[in-house]
Design a protein that fits this description.
The structure is a single chain. This protein is α/β, with parallel strands linked by helices. It contains 14 helices and 13 strands. The structure holds pyridoxal-5'-phosphate (PLP). The site of pyridoxal-5'-phosphate has 14 residues, from helix 4.
Length: 396
């Protein structure tokens, strides 16, 4: 038999090239809980890398409700939603989310990724157009590709450019105008009010992905639509249950018609098993916490202001962030990874992020503070940033 050549050899050479560029990442292994100070790779670190904005991953109420659901309902749903996997607790979560978002209805998906990709792919056809911010999340881009609609990209936050694109399209053509609510790598807010105005002028469907805004912006953390006072002007709102809400999942909030349509046409809803009941129970408990304890969001913002001010005072370039996501922009990919590694050795975990997640010359270390970090932990992290930043010649 002839020697078989490895048909996957190109993958090994791509990995080698990442190693040569200093961009190869070993996965960091979390040995304890996902919390503000924890152990990764046998080292105790102040954790500035999670999306656990409110510390709900370890909240006693969420744990208790999840355990109760396991005892009463078991560990799995056993089916996709559209066959036998719609449990009463899924419907309860959807009702609670609709009240939280002040929309007619909500459908829950297995993840925020599935919510975005499944929805964009379902509502558009190849005759339609998606008009999308250049920094929108990968799940939006994938949904747009799956829909086979024409994809038009406007420069980041440039609603004027979006308007120009939309204006040149035939009036009868269906158009979806879409932005992230909070951009996950830069922490800035989408141009939602301006884009809503464009959508209204030209009759576009308006959609926002509030993955990083859920639990962070708006009353009780209900998102950027509430933050900007845009209720009734956004047709499709996506949110996530995996970040500030501490568990797992994504959802789409909108009209009853939209949600009924997605029940029938969104492929992750039709072809992938629904959440275990414990996840739905934990998400309902998270909504209870948001309603009952508004101080938790105040603590997140107090910590955010403190930490951002500290990084700027040290002389780091923190970009244009308006949220608890604060990038420390370095430029060179290898240097950003070096900074992240040295911070880790000194007891601070802030992930380095390089191409293709961000542009080649915009590599960074991304920090996210949470409501549960103590001031001492944040001050420690700032001291370490100062020391390592000077050591690597990033700050003076
Ligand atoms: C902007 C944005 N949208 C959607 C998602 C996907 O959410 P999830 O992690 O729940 O799949 C993410 C998370 O990575 C995100 O940053």
């Amino acid at each position: 038999m002839a020697l078989r050549l490895d048909p996957l050899a190109h993958l090994a050479s791509e990995l080698d090239s990442l190693k040569h560029q200093g961009l190869y990442r070993r996965l960091r292994i979390l040995e304890g809980e996902q919390s503000h100070k924890t152990t990764f790779d046998h080292r105790e670190v102040v954790n500035l890398s999670s999306n656990n904005y409110l510390g709900l991953t370890t909240h006693p109420k969420l744990r208790e409700r999840a355990l109760e659901a396991i005892r009463q309902l078991g560990v799995g749903s056993g089916s996709v939603r559209s066959i036998a996997g719609t449990m009463a607790i899924h419907m309860e979560l959807e009702r609670r989310l609709a009240a939280f978002k002040k929309t007619e209805a909500v459908v829950v998906f297995q993840s925020g990724f599935a919510a975005n990709a499944g929805t964009v792919a379902a509502v558009l056809t190849k005759e339609d157009v998606v008009v999308s911010d250049e920094l929108n999340h990968a799940s939006i881009i994938d949904g747009a590709r799956l829909s086979r609609a024409t994809i038009k990209v406007f420069p980041h936050k440039d609603a004027g450019a979006a308007r120009k694109i939309v204006k040149e399209l035939p009036a009868g053509q269906r158009k979806l105008l879409i932005t992230d609510g909070v951009f996950s790598m830069d922490g800035d807010l989408g141009a939602l009010p301006e884009l809503c105005a464009v959508a209204e002028e030209f009759g576009c469907i308006m959609m926002v992905d509030d993955a990083h805004a859920s639990g962070v912006f708006g009353a009780h953390g209900s998102g950027t639509v509430d933050h900007f006072g845009m209720h009734g002007r956004v047709d499709i709102q996506v949110g996530t249950l995996s970040k500030a809400l501490g568990a797992l999942g994504g959802y789409v909030a909108g009209s009853r018609t939209l949600i009924e349509f997605l029940y029938h046409r969104a492929r992750p809803f039709l072809f992938s098993t629904s959440h275990p009941p414990a996840v739905a129970a934990a998400c309902i408990a998270a909504l209870d916490v948001l309603e009952e304890d508004p101080t938790i969001i105040d603590r997140l913002w107090n910590n955010t202001r403190f930490f951002k001010a500290g990084l700027s005072a040290l002389g780091f370039n923190t970009g244009l962030s308006e949220s608890p996501i604060t990038p420390v922009i370095i430029g060179d990919g290898a240097l950003a990874m070096k900074l992240s590694d040295r911070l880790f050795e000194e007891g601070v975990f802030a992930q380095g992020i390089a191409f293709p997640t961000v542009a080649r010359d915009k590599a960074r270390v991304r920090t996210i503070v949470t409501a549960t970090h103590t001031r001492d932990e944040l001050q420690f992290a700032l001291d370490v940033f100062g020391k390592v930043g000077r050591e690597l010649g990033i700050i003076a």
